[in-house]
Design goal:
Blueprint lengths: L1 E2 L16 E6 L4 E8 L2 E4 L2 E3 L10 H23 L8 E7 L3 H18 L3 E5 H13 L5 E5 L4 E7 L2 E7 L5 H11 L8 H9 L12 E2 L2 E2 L2 H16 L5 H27 L3 E5 L6 H14 L2 E3 L3 H4 L3 H13 L27
Parallel strand pairs: 1-14, 2-6, 6-7, 8-13, 13-14
Antiparallel strand pairs: 2-3, 3-4, 3-5, 8-9, 9-10, 11-12
Helix pairs in contact: 1-2, 3-10, 4-6, 5-7, 7-8
Length: 352
């Protein structure tokens, strides 16, 4: 049974004080500021940098967008939450992974705010932010996690204070593959390439066979991208298929690969739950295909919608909340950012 649970509150220990954390996210083309109080999402505004069809987003231009937007998003977050800076206990920010220039732009704001407000600072792993937000929103207890986004593709399970990576993309992320395919056939980037591919795929009727590459627990998407870059216009020009057929075929192939490695990880871990997180995770076709697999295994699928799948500040605030409550803080001299920050590098001290 596909479990959508958008309950935004859970009960902490009765004797624990209310803890409020503000989170800043800006690792890619979205700038978000979210505020969380003991499991309740108080606010979560964001802005998206959108480029013309056929173009990606450059780090320098994305950082410029974030610098222009971040203060208005911060004001909006405080206003929606109905709180003052004095009420905040900790300032969390995305330490990595992500694009260098946007990460730096947002980290500088977080550092400045923390010093102005005299609050502790906390650097958060972007991937763990997605996982903790997914766990909060859905109520999944101990799921096998499929993390799928523009920059990452990982199959993850928790064990002994680490989020262990059981499989991953060995070249490009699934979201990057979708985005670059969208550029090939000039699909709009508004609101996102992946969303527009999903809508076009619903109108596709002919399946075009594409390269399918699973290597043990890992997946590879560069081959299917190279094939579509070379063949798409030839097939379209010859009338062999439509753009909608290509979108349909690409989704079916990519998502089948992801379901396969997720099921293999579930079997290895004896898991009865799957949680899909990351921007690609709000694709309904991916959820449908994963649901079929889960039903066959007697397992449950947990997923969220675009409010929490897509990069947002509340996910950084929630991970920061968990970390802060378990004693983590980041000294100012250690508040640098990094483009490479693996999920399994973080000691998960807040879980048993």
């Amino acid at each position: 049974m596909l479990c959508f649970s958008f309950q935004l509150f859970f009960f902490s220990l009765a004797d624990a004080a209310m803890t409020i954390v503000i989170g800043f996210e800006g690792s890619a083309n979205k700038i978000g500021v979210g505020i969380v109080r003991d499991g309740a999402v108080l606010s979560n505004p964001r802005r998206t940098y959108i480029t013309p069809p056929g173009q990606g987003f450059l780090p320098s231009e994305t950082a410029k967008h974030h610098r222009a937007c971040v203060l208005s998003v911060l004001k909006e977050a405080l206003l929606q939450a109905g709180i003052q800076p004095a009420d905040i206990d900790c300032v969390a920010f995305t330490k990595g992974p992500g694009m260098g220039a946007p990460l730096v732009a947002v980290a500088i704001v977080a550092r400045t705010v923390a010093q102005l407000w005299k609050k502790p600072l906390l650097g958060v792993n972007h991937c763990i932010g997605h996982i903790e937000m997914g766990r909060l929103i859905t109520g999944a207890a101990n799921p096998t996690v499929l993390y799928v986004s523009g920059g990452n593709t990982q199959v993850i399970s928790y064990s002994e204070r680490r989020y262990r990576i059981f499989g991953e993309a060995i070249d490009i992320a699934v979201g990057n593959c979708l985005d670059r395919f969208a550029r090939v056939i000039k699909i709009s980037n508004d609101p996102s390439p992946g969303y527009n591919i999903e809508q076009m795929a619903k109108k596709g009727s002919q399946f075009v066979e594409l390269p399918y590459t699973v290597k043990g627990m890992d997946v590879s998407f560069s081959g299917i991208l190279s094939y579509t870059e070379e063949m798409a216009h030839k097939m379209l020009g010859a009338g062999e298929c439509t753009p909608e057929d290509l979108c349909f075929s690409l989704q079916e192939t990519l998502f089948s690969m992801l379901v396969e490695v997720t099921e293999r990880a579930m079997a290895h871990c004896g898991s009865r739950e799957v949680l899909i997180v990351g921007g690609v995770g709000c694709n309904l076709r991916l959820q449908e295909m994963m649901e079929v697999m889960c039903q066959e295994r007697g397992a449950k699928l947990f997923a969220t919608d675009e409010r929490f799948c897509i990069d947002n500040g509340a996910m950084i605030a929630q991970a920061g909340w968990e970390m802060f409550r378990s004693g983590h803080v980041t000294a100012l001299e250690d508040s640098w950012v990094t483009q490479r920050f693996r999920t399994d590098e973080v000691e998960v001290t807040w879980r048993d």
